[in-house]
């Protein structure tokens, strides 16, 4: 890594968060505290509500009940667009602009969304790309990058907005196995530099090694939350024990 800007991760607090699709509640009364600069990994079976939880945090999905506090203040008080400048999100599929270079993909957000002068946005983009190890690939189009490199561009793009929290939804699931490690290493670095991260992942090794807190969800509820040691070495509920026996 060429540089290591420190981040100023914010705290997050979920209070009795309930999210529904129409009449069906897929997340019920979820409460969770996340300290600034820590990493929380969310694990659980398919359909348990992990992605919905992330979408509730940045209001891609409006809560039916409850609240989310970002740095102690309700996210419902911000306009959703303003909120998404403060909470970056990285998905399984990178959604880069195919006709723009890696550098332009990263620069577009600070330039067009944040209104920074173009030259300054390009400078920020160069810096962020260097931090994710892609200084030499700045002029490549997405199709000329590997999946892992594209995902690192997507992470650089989110970081260019200087977010206070980063949400990752299975950011490595679409990658070939040999590319996963580079992206996970980058995510672990962000954590060390003080970013607040909420990471939905199937990578139990990553959760065990990097997480400050692991949250196990099932059927729209948090069943257990604790340190990696508590969750992986001393699971309490039959549901978590069964889940771990299937994935480990
Ligand atoms: N747009 C939608 N409309 C209706 N129901 C939905 C919608 N999106 C998700 N659901 C339902 O909400 C529940 C939670 O889905 P969610 O995508 O949050 O699960 P997940 O834990 O992320 O699963 P996976 O590990 O497969 O990604 C599921 O029962 C799902 O079918
Ligand atoms: Mg999901």
UniProtKB/TrEMBL annotation:
Q: Which residues form the ABC transporter domain?
A: 12-244
Q: Which InterPro entries match?
A: AAA+_ATPase, ABC_ATPase_HisP-typ, ABC_transporter-like_ATP-bd, ABC_transporter-like_CS, MetN_ABC_transporter-like, P-loop_NTPase
Source species, domain of life: Bacteria
Q: Note the SUPFAM superfamilies from the entry.
A: P-loop containing nucleoside triphosphate hydrolases
Gene3D superfamilies named among the record's database cross-references: P-loop containing nucleotide triphosphate hydrolases (3.40.50.300)
Compartment list? Cell inner membrane
For molecular function, the Gene Ontology terms on record are: ABC-type amino acid transporter activity; ATP binding; ATP hydrolysis activity
Q: How does it sit in the membrane?
A: Peripheral membrane protein
Tagged with keyword Transport: yes
Where does it mainly reside? membrane
Pull one GO CC term from this UniProt entry: plasma membrane
Family annotation (Pfam families): ABC_tran
Q: What is this protein called?
A: Peptide ABC transporter ATP-binding protein
């Amino acid at each position: 890594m060429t540089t290591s800007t420190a981040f100023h991760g914010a705290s997050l607090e979920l209070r009795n968060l309930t999210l529904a699709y129409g009449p069906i509640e897929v997340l019920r009364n979820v409460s969770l505290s996340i300290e600034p600069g820590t990493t929380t990994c969310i694990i659980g079976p398919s359909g348990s509500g992990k992605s919905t939880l992330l979408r509730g945090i940045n209001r891609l999905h409006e809560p039916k009940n409850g609240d989310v506090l970002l740095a102690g203040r309700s996210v419902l008080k911000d306009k959703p667009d303003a909120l998404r400048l403060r909470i970056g999100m990285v998905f399984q599929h990178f959604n880069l602009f195919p006709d723009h270079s890696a550098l332009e993909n990263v620069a577009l957000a600070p330039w067009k969304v944040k209104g920074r002068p173009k030259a300054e946005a390009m400078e920020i983009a160069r810096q962020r790309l260097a931090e994710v190890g892609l200084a030499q690939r700045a002029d490549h189009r997405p199709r000329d990058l590997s999946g892992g490199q594209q995902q690192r561009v997507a992470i650089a793009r989110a970081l260019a907005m200087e977010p206070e929290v980063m949400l990752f939804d299975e950011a490595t699931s679409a990658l070939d196995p040999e590319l996963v490690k580079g992206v996970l290493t980058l995510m672990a670095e962000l954590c060390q530099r003080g970013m607040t991260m909420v990471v939905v992942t199937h990578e139990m090794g990553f959760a065990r090694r990097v997480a400050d807190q692991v949250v196990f969800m099932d059927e729209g509820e948090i069943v257990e939350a604790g340190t990696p040691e508590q969750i992986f070495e001393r699971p309490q509920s039959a549901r978590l024990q069964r889940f771990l026996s299937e994935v480990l």
